Amino acid sequence: MIASYRWENTHKKRYYCLILAQDLFGDWVITKVWGGINKASGRIVHLPCPSYEIAHSTIEKIARTREKRGYILCR
Questions:
Q1: Cross-referenced InterPro entries, in alphabetical order (predicted)?
Q2: b/e string for 20-33 if b means 16 or more Cβ within 10 A?
Q3: Quick count: other Cβ atoms within 10 Å of Cβ 66?
Q4: How many other C-beta atoms lie within 10 A of the C-beta of residue 71?
Q5: Which of 10, 12, 53, 58 has a Cα-to-Cα distance from 40 of 20 to 30 A?
Q6: 7-44 tens-digit pLDDT
């Protein structure tokens, strides 16, 4: 794992996580995890990226979207 980010929206009781890592073949993958705080339900999506630079810019775009929707970066 290279980087991990977590946002929370306490008003809606939701969370959103991103994990940037390389898979076994050395390809970059963003893992997106989201759901309700203190709930067992949620979703996981793996987003393959052709390069680290593209993965980094994708994370920045997602971060802007999360913040516009009222999420606060926790770590």
A1: WGR_dom_sf, YehF/YfeS-like_WGR
A2: beeeeeeebebebe
A3: 20
A4: 21
A5: 58
A6: 999 999 999 999 999 999 999 999 999 999 988 889 99
Q: Find all residues with CB under 8 Å of 32, minimum gap 6, and list them.
A: 16, 17, 18, 43, 44, 45, 46, 47, 62
What the block records as the tokens of 34 is: 């989201």
The yes-or-no verdict on residue 1 having pLDDT over 90 is no
Contact 55, 62 (CB under 8 A): no
Per-residue tokens: 61 = 């775009």
Q: What is the pTM of this model?
A: 0.87
